[in-house]
Design brief:
The chain is mainly alpha-helical and 247 residues long. The protein has one domain. The chain contains 8 helices and 2 strands, in the order αααααααββα. Strands 1-2 form a two-stranded antiparallel ribbon. A hairpin with a 4-residue loop joins β1 and β2. The protein is flat.
Length: 247
């Protein structure tokens, strides 16, 4: 009996030692898990910082990349406010305004019948209004109209694209007019402008337009010529561009 009791005490002692060892193992594993958790949090923070820095670099690089050709072309045609291409806030709209002005006194003609604006700045203001308030205006019109014609409400999503299409059309005219200043083939300029505008609209940006503007940086504005219109009293000198005289 004494031997059996001693054996049982030995077993109990071994179990206690095993339990203590398991507790130590659990403690060690818990410490290791805590270290990995802290390391994971640190890695996440480092990754977030790297991602933020990378994003900032990309934004600045795109800003510089898109501003350079607009500024260069504006300087070539003698725009005093070419520096607006570098305005950091709302620079997309400032660059678009500079593009609008590169065509000079040429009327804004969107190929919609005989409609044209002699003051190109009005077209830019129209672009801003449509961009910021077009969706709201369409929404109000659809809401009112749907009370009279219920079916209009079912196509409201399609009507919501109208402001985006209108803005893209205005931007196409700007690009077309810029190309006309530096390249003689108006038909080719028109086709190129349409293609670039459609691609940029699909990609939601103006990166393709910016890339294409770089191809114009080595070009000079088309030269102007003086032609003499004779009449019975005196001679009148009129300055026209080559593309006008060719017509």
């Amino acid at each position: 009996m004494n031997d059996f009791a001693g054996s049982m005490q030995g077993v109990e002692s071994a179990l206690e030692q095993s339990s203590d060892m398991l507790g130590d193992v659990e403690s060690i594993l818990g410490s290791i898990a805590g270290i990995f958790s802290i390391a994971s949090m640190g890695a996440t923070a480092v990754f977030a910082i790297i991602a933020a820095i990378f994003s900032a670099i990309v934004v600045v690089a795109l800003y510089i990349f898109q501003s350079i050709p607009v500024y260069s072309l504006a300087k070539k045609v003698g725009l005093k406010h070419a520096w607006l291409s570098w305005v950091p806030f709302f620079h997309d709209y400032f660059r678009l305004f500079v593009l609008c002005e590169i065509a000079g006194n040429k009327p804004f003609v969107p190929n919609l019948g005989k409609f044209k604006l002699e003051n190109r700045k009005l077209s830019f203001l129209a672009h801003i209004v449509i961009k910021y308030f077009g969706g709201t205006i369409i929404g109000v019109i659809v809401t009112i109209a749907s009370t009279i014609i219920p079916v209009i409400g079912s196509v409201s999503a399609i009507l919501g694209f109208i402001p985006a299409v209108a803005c893209a059309w205005i931007e196409y005219v700007y690009l077309r007019d810029v190309l006309d200043v530096f390249k003689e083939n108006k038909k080719s300029n028109n086709t190129t402008s349409i293609v670039i505008t459609v691609i940029d609209a699909i990609l939601i940006g103006d990166l393709i337009r910016s890339c294409y503007l770089y191809t114009l940086m080595k070009k000079q504005p088309l030269p102007e010529k003086e032609i003499v219109i004779e009449n019975s009293v005196d001679a009148e000198v009129v300055t026209v561009s080559d593309d006008v005289s060719a017509e």
